[in-house]
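ARCHIVE CARD
SHELF: 3
SLOT: left
DATA:
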Amino acid sequence: MPSNVEIKARLRDRAGVQARAEALSAEKAWLIRQEDVFFKSPKAA
């Protein structure tokens, strides 16, 4: 079953990490452009 995994981290070797992820995946990596929107909440954690 396909899934999307989002990880936010600093990388020293982005190309190496991408190559490893593609080796573990059935598909080649692709870029998903998105815009994150944050809302102020009185109950924010």
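SLOT: right
DATA:
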Amino acid sequence: MTVRVLVAAWVVATAGCRNPHVDGDPCQTASECVGSTCVQGRCRHACNATADCGRSQVCVEGGCVPAPHGSASSSASASSLSVAGTGTSSVAASSSSLGGTSRTSAASSGPAVTAAASSTAAAKSSSTAAAGSSASPASSWSSSSVSAESGSSGCAPGTAECDGNLTNGCEDIATDPARCGDCGRACSANNVAAAACAAGECVPTCVAGFYNCVAPAVPLPDDGCETDTTTSIDHCGSCGRACSGLNVAARDCSAGTCTSSCDLGFANCTAPSAPTEDNGCELPVGTDSAHCGGCGNACERWLACDQGAGVQRYCGCSNHNECGPGGGACISGLCLCRTECRPGETCDHTDQCTCNGRPSCNVVETCCARPAGCFDLTIDRYNCGACGRGCAPGFTCSNGVCACASGRCLSGGTCTSGRCVCSGTTCQPGERCTPSGTCG
């Protein structure tokens, strides 16, 4: 009688879970299951971080459930699911080696992770490993091939999970111009003839006259072929080739050649082409009789570039014999024929003042050999203060000094009393504002 009562009591106690390890009887609470726990409405064998499930099972919410067909083994799946008692599942931080590169995936919390998702993630990892081995980028990638945008993990170097579809493998971010270096980072079409991506960097073919000099690094947006090397003073003719500031009033680039205006007494005569480094206004012309004030402005006949005062002299005489065959006299550096000549003039065989064999200049002009002719050096912006000395584009010449005009100081500068003001600094005459906000 006593034995029958005990057996009946055991049957009642276990009525909700006759064999929790096999049949998965229905339940509402864990108390209805003996030696097991209630998971998703069924009695299941209890599991945790140290107690594994059997083969073809996975640990979900602290209980063993059958793994979907084709999933990873229970031991592999269990490591990616949470221990019972939380009510939710989190993908634990894990580290694996793929294609010779170590990757670490960051933990993320969310709704319960099913065994099917774990199986799909395992398949995803296998497909990305194959992709990484066949398309490894040329440059060195970080140890974690994780897109900052998508937050994906488990991808081989040069790839990232970009489309949110775990079934199609990781996407190429090493050579795809639509996602170069990161998900959603497309190579710009700005002045681009043909877009291309190599090792996660945009390497476009540019339209004529433009180059990709800046090449912003990931994650900054790409800017295409942003630099006009025909006009940029910092990239004149080629990337990184800056116009020199040596003896320069205002740096300038035209057609890829540095055409800077010069300080008085210097000239830009060699103007080397890219890729040769620019040398600014390299030639002193203050007293050079072959280049008096400007390139190639040679003094006529016996005159020399040694008359006048200041930095820049002019072509004149120092004795009577230097005024030519007409028999003129030299007075205060100027030849005196029948009339007083202008700087640079001599006497012809009729004792008339002549400018390079042409008629004499008027009283406010100077005789120049290059450019040939008579010019007023006090107001001519192409011959300002000296023969052949030009001012910066848009500037004028006032009393032999280059002066700015409104809107011609560039880079946000203002023009005040003929001089540019750059970032609060008043520039020297003839200077304008550079892209960095300085004078020059």
